[in-house]
Specification:
Elements lengths: L13 H21 L12 E4 L2 E4 L5 E10 L7 E9 L10 E7 L10 E9 L8 E11 L3 E2 L3 E7 L9 E4 L2 E4 L11 E9 L7 E9 L12 E7 L5 E8 L9 E8 L6 E2 L3 E7 L11 E4 L14 E6 L6 E6 L3 E6 L4 E5 L14 E6 L13
Parallel strand pairs: 1-8, 2-9, 10-17, 11-18
Antiparallel strand pairs: 1-3, 3-6, 4-5, 4-7, 7-9, 10-12, 12-15, 13-14, 13-16, 16-18, 19-20, 21-22, 22-23, 23-24
Length: 377
């Protein structure tokens, strides 16, 4: 007798197998989505720029000033920025000249921070010599970072007015605006140094006021305010924070001021006002769409017909128009590739097409690609 076959599992139907395969595919896709360490997608290129900074010299020892380096967007791989600290009117007796590398390391979400700093050691003295400068230059980058503003200027503020008690001063600084926030409070904070010329012999106070210069409160920086800065015995450096609000709008550099008033008895104010420069890092658009409206009896709107338009209509689908000028019944424009285009009435050859035929749509004039500007009479 033939032994019966063992069938420990029931035979699955074709439909059941399809469902199992589909669930397996969904599970794999879900696991891929949840896999740790997947690089986050940055919103744009990571462009590194260095800012300016000021520091009060001091009378003894060394002080460290941090020169800001800012990325417009996070990098998504381990990246570095190489730099060199070189002499200006200040030399090796005033600061430590060096070269080095600033690292940007991705966090658990796969993105780097967008702010770093280059530490520069300043040597104090009691020589009356005037303010001096040094330069911090970005010399190269790796890991997908490109360089924007490569040169920052550091100013060593002389605080040696002669014999007397402590002198308190505030120093200028610069921060690159940035496109994204670096802190949960949606600001890119910059610390403005408030410095004593010598260690405080006892508690000393000075009032610092943060106010708008050309920057707008609530739009370019977080808030204007007044606070009392207190130096405890032995301290020489404090800071006032300015919260810069990032954006992607092309605009001019803007400023915030920090002013010192009301010093404690025995405390003298040296540099009373500092300027925080918010350096714009947003590239103006280089292209755009073209729109027209109004009388169109000679096709001067460029819509391909002679129908008047009472509201703006887009002319074609191009997004590379750089400039446009309107004549009496014709229009001339330049594209970002330097080509020249015209349309509308052409009874006197004003379009430049070599004939006197009207055109109701833009036509290229010649083959030149070096047109810079044009005006239609």
């Amino acid at each position: 007798m033939t032994a019966p076959h063992d069938h420990p599992h029931p035979r699955r139907s074709r439909a059941t197998r399809r469902v199992a395969l589909a669930l397996t595919a969904l599970l794999v896709a879900g696991l891929a989505a949840l896999a740790p360490g997947s690089p986050a997608q940055a919103s744009g290129p990571a462009v590194a720029s260095v800012g300016d900074v000021s520091v009060v010299e001091g009378d003894t020892g060394t002080r460290v000033v941090k020169v800001p380096v800012t990325l417009t967007n996070p990098a998504t791989t381990a990246s570095t920025v190489a730099f060199a600290v070189t002499a200006g009117s200040a030399d090796g007796t005033d600061l430590v000249l060096r070269t080095g590398t600033l690292k940007f390391t991705p966090n658990i979400t796969g993105e780097t921070k967008t702010a770093g700093a280059i530490a520069v050691k300043i040597t104090g003295d009691t020589t009356v010599e005037g303010d001096e400068t040094f330069t911090v230059t970005l010399t190269g980058a790796t890991g997908g970072i490109t360089l924007g503003d490569t040169t920052g200027v550091g100013t060593i503020v002389d605080d040696d007015p002669g014999p007397g008690g402590p002198v308190v001063s505030v120093a200028d600084t610069t921060i690159v605006e940035g496109d994204t926030a670096r802190t949960p409070t949606t600001t890119n904070n910059v610390a403005v140094a408030v410095t004593l010329s010598e260690p405080a012999p006892g508690p000393l106070d000075v009032v610092a006021t943060v106010a708008a210069g050309t920057a707008t409160t609530g739009a370019d920086f977080k808030k204007a305010y007044t606070k009392t800065v207190t130096f405890k015995p032995g301290q020489t450096t404090k800071a006032v924070s300015v919260g810069v609000l990032p954006d992607t709008t092309p605009e001019a550099d803007e400023t915030v001021t920090v002013t010192l008033t009301s010093p404690s008895p025995g405390l003298t104010i040296g540099a009373a006002t500092a300027t925080v420069t918010i350096r714009d890092d947003d590239t103006p658009p280089t292209s755009g769409t073209l729109w027209a409206w109004g009388y169109n009896g000679d096709g001067q709107l460029g819509t391909g017909d002679t129908t008047d338009q009472t509201s703006p209509v887009q002319i074609g689908t191009g997004t590379d128009w750089a400039s446009v000028t309107a004549g009496d019944s014709h229009t001339v424009a330049i594209r970002t590739d330097g080509t020249l285009w015209a349309w509308g009435r052409n009874g006197y050859g004003q379009l430049g097409t070599g004939d006197t035929t009207n055109r109701t749509s833009p036509v290229q004039i010649g083959t030149g690609t070096d047109w810079a500007s044009v005006t239609a009479g």
